[in-house]
Amino acid sequence: MSYQIAVLKGDGIGPDVVDEALRVLDASGGPELTFSEYPSGANCFKQLGTPLPDDSVAACRQADAVLLGAMGLPDVRWPDGTEMRPQVDLRFLLDLYAGVRPIYLYHADHSPLKGYGVGEIDFVLLRENVEGLFASMNGGIQLRNETAVDSMVITRTGTQRIAKYAFELAQQRCAERADQSPGHVTCVDKANIFRSMAFFRQVFDEVATGYSQIDVSHAYVDAMAMYLVRQPEAYDVLVAENMFGDILSDLAAGLVGGLGMAPSADIGTDAAVFQPVHGTAPDIAGKGIANPVGTILSAAMMWRWLGHRHTDADALAAGERIEAAVRIVMAEKGATTPDLGGKMTTHELGSAIADACN
Ligand code: ATP
Predict the structure, then answer these.
(1) Where are the domains of the chain?
(2) In the predicted model, what is the mean pLDDT of the chain?
(3) What CA–CA distances, in Å, run from 8 to 168, 246, 340?
(4) Which of 259, 291, 326, 349 to mutate to test the pocket of ligand 1 (most atoms within 8 A of CB)?
């Protein structure tokens, strides 16, 4: 088995962290991968007049999977003042409806909750990626320089498929857990206030009836922000509308060491893009100190996704090897980049993880 991977490095720290992920993929010993790089991002806009050329999109469609760094720069904006977000456009173009964000604490020292008896944090935040408040992206209205409106869009079909994804994921996580403790899905919404959110919860509950072996709970998004800080160990799979998922995923990343530690996958029926949760981090770009772990773990997610999709045990094993290597390196106190109090460079940390794969 061999796979074609489209690589979009993007801007800021994107190229640095992707280079480390590519090295770790090479070291992970899985099936053959062919990497092809395509232009994208704010710098691409400066050169080619578009942040996401059609050829790059076509290559993403044709590839077996896409590995992406980060895109957008604060000083490169559309005339309406918004930043260029080609990675978000790609979600809509490829219908990548499931934003999968695993949150795992590798070392208690990484958490701002250290000293407060933080336990094992291991949950997945599932963000609906193509509806919700982002559905009107690039299309909201601004009236007479006085009023601006963006709309929350929730559909039955969109909610059904993300809820189904959440329950299937909970089932899979349950099967992979050593103690096989039951899966648990929490619907995060604001059903007490918004009709759109009451509908989101209604459809979620309808889907839940098909998964009687999975525990179900509900929480309002404001309360969930507090619960995640007070008892992050309590959660397994959370599912939320696009904007709520966006906000909670940064909070959740903060619990386990910050944006540099958080991987993600944007999954559709026919395509998938793997990228860290973080953005281009212009404040540290070019300094060689960005934490590459989120991107490296996204690469491990790519192996796992390819493995499940193609029933390829070698790809699954390669993903597990990368995760094990991250666990080995992270277990060492101080083996981190400066964002977590260490002194390693991006390249040194990437090398340590690549070495630990062998
Ligand atoms: P976006 O809106 O594109 O998600 P953002 O404006 O929220 O981006 P980021 O670019 O993700 O912001 O950066 C937020 C903060 O987190 C910055 O201080 C940045 O330096 C830090 N940060 C982000 N990614 C990393 C990383 N990989 N390593 C270290 N620090 C990071």
Answers:
(1) 1-106+259-358, 122-255
(2) 95
(3) 29, 21, 26
(4) 259
